[in-house]
Amino acid sequence: MSYTVSKVQWEQAAPLLKNVREQVFVYEKRIPKNVEFDRKDHYACHVLACDDETKEPIGTGRILGSGEISRIAVLRRHRKEQIDKLILRSLLEIAQDMGLKEIFIYSPLDAIQYFQQFNFRTSEAVFMEAGLPKQKMTCPLHKVKPVKCYLSH
C-alpha cells in the first residue's frame, strides 16, 4: 500500500478532516465535538493522509503558528501502517518552512513514550482536557529525531 500526505486548507478540506477526526476523537475517544473542533482549525496548517489506491482519507494532523502540533488522528484500521509517522514528518516539514525554532504537543499520558522517541521532553504539570490527563512536551526543531517510516506493500 502507498499513501500520500498533503498540506490542505481548512476551508476546502474541512469535511474530509472532520470525518477522520470525528471517527477517532469524537466516537472512539469520546471527546465532545465542541472541544475537538475549535477556532484554531481556521488558521492552522492541516495535513491529510490518503490511501493512494482508494483515495480514502485515513489520517490528519495540524500545526499552529505557535509551534503546537495537534489533532494527529489515524483511522483504527490503518494504525499499524505508520501513517502517524508520515503525518508527523509532514508537520515537521511545515514547521521548518514556517521558520519555527521549537515545537510542542499536549500529549495524552499514554503517548508520552511515543513522542520521546523523537526527542520531545515533558514540561509543565499534568492537566486534564476533555477528561484525559495530558502533559506538554516540547522539542527544539533542530533536535527532533528523524521520523523514519518503513511502509510495506
Name the descriptors.
about 150 residues; alpha+beta; 7 strands; about 30% helix; acyltransferase activity, transferring groups other than amino-acyl groups; transferase; Acyl_CoA_acyltransferase; acyltransferase
The low-confidence runs, each spanning 5 or more residues with pLDDT under 50, are: none
**CATH fourth-tier homologous superfamily:** Gcn5-related N-acetyltransferase (GNAT)
Main beta sheet strand tally, sense and closure? 4 strands, antiparallel
CA radius of gyration: 15 Å
Number of discrete domains: 1
Q: Kindly state the number of beta strands.
A: 7
- Per the CATH scheme, the topology name is Aminopeptidase
* N- to C-terminal distance: 5 Å
CATH architecture: 3-Layer(aba) Sandwich
Per DSSP, the total helix count is: 4
Please provide the ordered H/E string of secondary-structure elements. Answer: EHHEEEHEHEE
Name the structural class: alpha+beta
CATH class: Alpha Beta
Principal-axis shape equals globular
Mean pLDDT: 92
Order of strands in the sheet with most strands: 1-2-3-4
Describe, in plain words, how this protein is organized in 3D.
- Residues 3-142 form the N-acetyltransferase domain.
- It holds the Pfam family Acetyltransf_10.
- Keywords: Acyltransferase, Transferase.
- InterPro entries: Acyl_CoA_acyltransferase, GNAT_dom.
- This protein is of the alpha+beta class.
- It has one domain (3-143): 3-Layer(aba) Sandwich (Aminopeptidase), CATH 3.40.630.30.
- 28% of the residues lie in helices and 33% in strands.
- The chain is built from four helices and seven strands.
- It has helices spanning 10-28, 33-36, 83-97, 112-116, and strands at residues 3-8, 45-51, 57-63, 69-74, 102-108, 121-129, 132-140.
- The strands form two sheets. A four-stranded antiparallel beta sheet has the order 1-2-3-4, sandwiched between helices. The chain has a three-stranded antiparallel beta sheet with strand order 5-7-6.
- Strand 3 and strand 4 (69-74) form a beta hairpin.
- The N and C termini lie close together (5 Å).
- The mean pLDDT is 92.
